Every structure is written in structure tokens, then in C-alpha cells.
Amino acid sequence: MKYYAGIDLGGTFIKCGIVDEKGNILVKDQIPTGKDRPYEEIAADMAALVRRLAESAGIEESDLRAAGIGSPGTVNSKKGVIIYANNLQWKNVPLGGAVAEALGVPVFVTNDANAAALGESFAGAAKGYESSIFVTLGTGVGGGIILDGKLFEGNRSAGAEIGHMVIRAGGEKCTCGRRGCFEAYASATALIRQTKEAMKKNPGSALWKVCPDIEQVNGKTPFDALQTGDKTAERVIKKYVTWLAEGLANLANVFRPNAIVLGGGVCAAGDALLEPLRRKMNRLLYGGTKYAPVPIVIASLGNDAGLVGAAHFAQQSAG
Amino acid sequence: MKYYAGIDLGGTFIKCGIVDEKGNILVKDQIPTGKDRPYEEIAADMAALVRRLAESAGIEESDLRAAGIGSPGTVNSKKGVIIYANNLQWKNVPLGGAVAEALGVPVFVTNDANAAALGESFAGAAKGYESSIFVTLGTGVGGGIILDGKLFEGNRSAGAEIGHMVIRAGGEKCTCGRRGCFEAYASATALIRQTKEAMKKNPGSALWKVCPDIEQVNGKTPFDALQTGDKTAERVIKKYVTWLAEGLANLANVFRPNAIVLGGGVCAAGDALLEPLRRKMNRLLYGGTKYAPVPIVIASLGNDAGLVGAAHFAQQSAG
């Protein structure tokens, strides 16, 4: 049997799991990142964590074939170098090489959203679909593109920036500097902004009952208010779903994947989000839905997607 | 030596060439399509044309390894079936099989824009670039996506509909029924519409001198007027270039290709189009232009792109 270590590097924690060839996690654990330390120390901690977990799982040293790391930021996966990671304050960090040296097995690095996409494709909600696009609705809109079961990253891994595809040129300002990006309309942050705007205009809305302190609005707020039959919440969600459908339909028309996987906190809304979303996106699919439909499914691996995907990335890269 | 037939099927003509392994055309010719005939007759004509050309080029029968066809419409390239082609009034036509039977070599079919994209990638303006996106600015906005030297078509070849990615949701009506598609802003048709609108609003513009009959406006008109220093033409082009840049930047951010190839009549404008376009698109590239730049180049094979690409598609598919 062959095993792979999957590492999910975050600004706060390093999560790690030992994963088998089928994507099952044997053991997992996490340690603090301590992100202000030199990267060499972080790499050494990663290697030690992998060794400890492999031992606790009773894996023979020779059966651990490789390790994969999902890292925030822009990652040159061919070289194992983190080009730029804002939340770690890293620039051109050769993390893959450092961990490989400490661990004694090949190490492969990709972006964290890519790793999650690969995890969902290999062992999660998109299992069985040849090609899929993973879209997370969080602070921003991130994602990963899986074609024929493999990550598609673009030249120097700089592609798959699906949040930074405009859907309304000249529209809302995006954090990237462009106006009208998908992210500026469809992230959880955007939904919160849209909800707050609606609350200010509608002092009688049940949104205020659900969340009396406007600063506490989150992605759940409008869906909670919707359940009380609130018209303002209904309008907010309808509009948000329209933007989300436009972006997903763009991805569907350009990639025509076998499935789209949605992740991120907003998905907790379940059918209240999914049903109108499917309906709207299907109306925007070029050529209709009969010939090559694009189902929308909800991510199923949760916080484990990144480490399962990182392990599978190592499996694909090392063989 | 191995040779391949490349066939470019159009509503008016069937163009065909015998192409070597390097993408050089040995001989080429065209015959009328006669599109209202049964497809079996058209297939027989194609096979006869290929045989005649192969003979005139002095190719041994055994050296002609396969034929490729670029067809309008939606094509299931795995099956060689034209699913739907509006201008031929075809539905589910098994063209590949029919030509293969008549010709006695394997025949592979893809969409005509895809074939042109592959031609430009293999032997034209994108030669040497691993991945490229071909964008034609014509009646619509068509295109093809080349990843690692191969066509990317999406599930059942239904992807790569780059003209039907919205860049301004809720905006201009597109022929596909959606509002705000790239095609509705960046096709030659859109440029003509934008030019006419500007002429109606500006009776003193030199656009009227360049083209006194507004019904005769074409994609060249605004560029001709620009040369006389006309401010209205300048504004029309500036706006058009802005839309075009938004769509190309979307493709660049999502695919991060090694190059974008522009084709279609509008490109005749040359630097008057390209210079501002490059400048604007570069400003919209996620992460800037230093790490993974996306050069924009002009298609170089002209009308031969389709048949060179169809032949190369056969070469890749048959080996």
C-alpha cells in the first residue's frame, strides 16, 4: 500500500493528514503555524508532524511515498515555490524543497483552493465527474479547475482566478482593483454588503429582528430572515443568486465541466440557495441543458478537502 | 512521411488541403458545399476532393494517414457527429463516419473555430506557445482554447463558448438570449452597432465622410475615421477596446494562457487596435503582468487556419 501526507497550510494552523491511495484519511492533526517565524522552521515542523502522524498510523517509512502541501497565495507548483502569499507575508519561498529535504520524500506544493478542488474531485462531492470546477464563496470567491481528474493551473500556476472574472464591467469595486469582478458580487462578503444595504433602506424588514446589530450580519442572516417570509430578505437573496448564476454560467459556457462544486459558508443555506441557483444558471447555459448539463453540487469534505487534495496532488505528481 | 487532409466545411465552400506533419500545405482547393443536399453526397464529395488533391500532390495512398474536418456548429468530436449546425440546417449528422467510409482512412471532426485555433497554435501566430486562446472578432465572437498543444473542448465538446461569457450582466441583448455577453460588445457586429449609434448622435463626425451611407458601416469605418483625427471615432474605438480588454482579461485570469491570438476582420486595424488593447488588458490582469504575462498576437494563417488545424487535429487524433 502507498500513502501520502496531505498538508493544509493556513495563516493560523498547519493541518496534516496521512491519506491512502483512495483518499481516506488514516490520521490527522494540526499544529499552530507560527507564521512570523522563518519558513525553514515551519518546514521543519511540517516534516516532524508528518513523521509523527505516519508513525501513529503505523505506516512503514517506505510506504509514505510523497507529501503534498496546499498553500495560500500564488504558488508555482512546478517548482514548489510560493511566489506570493499575502497572509503569510511570503515572497518566493521554496517551501517544497525545504520540506522535502527535512522529510526525505518528494514534496509537491499547490494553491490551497486548488488542493480543495482536487480533494472534492477525487474523494468528495465531484467524485466520478471527469471535470469539475470548485467555487468557494467566502471572504472572496476562490476556486480550482479540474480537467480530466487533474488540476488545471494555467501558465506558471497563475490561472484559475475565477473570482477575478468580471461579470459586470465597470460595476462594484473589487479588492483586486478591477471593477465588476465575480468576487465583488458573489462572495460571502458581497452578500453581507448587499444585506446591510437592504437593511438600511428597509428599517421595517425582519432582517433587523434576525440581526439587530447590523455589524453582526453574516452570510446566514438573509436566509434566516427569508424563513420568516421577509420580502426584503427575499429580494436580497434573489439578486445575489442572480449574480452567482451569471458567474457560474460563464464558467459553464467556457469550460463546460461535468459538475460545479460549491463550497464556503454561504452553502449552509442549502436548498434555499441551490434551487433558485440551479434554475437561473440553467437558463443562462449556452445551448440549453439537454445536451451537456452542468449539475451544481455542494462540497462534502468540509475542512478536510484541502489535505485530501494535497495528498492526492502528491499521489498524482509522484505516482 | 505522413500526410493529413484538412477540410474546412463552410456554408458556401468546402476547402481542403493536404498538409504535412509540420503544418505545411502541399496543395489546396475548394468546391461548392451545396449545403441543401443530403449529407451523404457532401461526404462523398469531400472524399473525392481529398483523393484528387492527394493524387495531384503525388502522395502515396498509404502515406495519407487521416483526415480532419472543421465544421460549423456544435460537434461531438469523440463521435464525429455534428450535433447541430444552424447554417447547414444539420442535426445529429454522423459526418466523420460517412467520410471515413468513403475515404478509407480515419476521419476526425471538430468545430471550425476550434480547428482554426489549433492551426494557429501549431503553425501560425501562437506557434511555440504551449497554451493559447484564439478569439475571432466577426459576426459573433468565436474561439478555441489550446492547452498543452491540444484542443480543450469541454464535456461533449460543448465548452469554449467564449463569446457567451457575460462581461456586463443585464447589458446588451445577445443573439443567444442572454444579456451582456462578450459577443454583444466585442464582435464586429457590435463595433458596427456602436459606430452607427455614435454617428446618429454626432452628425458632424468624420464618420459620415468616411461612410456617407450609414447602412454600409463596417468594422473598418471607425478606424478610417480615426486616421482623420475624428473625436467621435476615437471615442467609439476607445469604448470598444475597453469591452474587448475586459473579455480578454477574463480569459487571461481564468486560463492564464501563454498567448491570446486575435482573428477576424477587425484585426486589420493593426496597431490602432492592438496598442490600446494590450495596455488596457494588462491593467486588468490579476497579479499584474510581470509574473505570467499574456501577449496578444494577430492570427497569421488567415483562411488557411481552419484546414491546417483540421489536418493537425487528425494528426493528433490518429497519430
The level-1 CATH class of the largest domain in chain A: Alpha Beta
The helix content of chain A, as a percent range, equals 25-40%
If interface size is counted as residues with C-beta under 8 Å from the partner's C-beta, which chains form the largest one?
A: A-B, 46 and 46 residues
Order of strands across the main sheet of chain A: 3-2-1-4-8
The number of distinct β-strands of chain A equals 13
Query: How many independent structural domains of chain A?
Result: 2
What name does CATH use for the topology of the largest domain in chain A? Nucleotidyltransferase, domain 5
Query: So, CATH architecture of the largest domain in chain A?
Result: 2-Layer Sandwich
Shape of chain A: globular
- Compute the CA-based radius of gyration of chain A: 20 Å
Report the major sheet of chain A: 5 strands, mixed
% residues in beta strands of chain A: 15-25%
Oligomer: homodimer
Structure report:
2 copies of one chain form a homodimer. In chain A, 38% of the residues lie in helices and 23% in strands. With 319 residues, the first copy, chain A, is an alpha/beta fold. Chain A folds into 2 domains: 3-112 and 309-318, 2-Layer Sandwich (Nucleotidyltransferase, domain 5); 132-300, Nucleotidyltransferase, domain 5 (2-Layer Sandwich), CATH 3.30.420.40. In chain A, the strands form 3 sheets. A 5-stranded mixed sheet of chain A has the order 3-2-1-4-8. In chain A, a hairpin with a 4-residue loop joins strand 5 and strand 6. In chain A, helix 3 packs across helix 10 (305-318) and helix 7 crosses helix 8 (231-255). The longest helix of chain A has 25 residues, at 231-255. Chain A is globular, with a radius of gyration of 20 Å. Chains A and B meet through helix 8 of A and helix 8 of B.
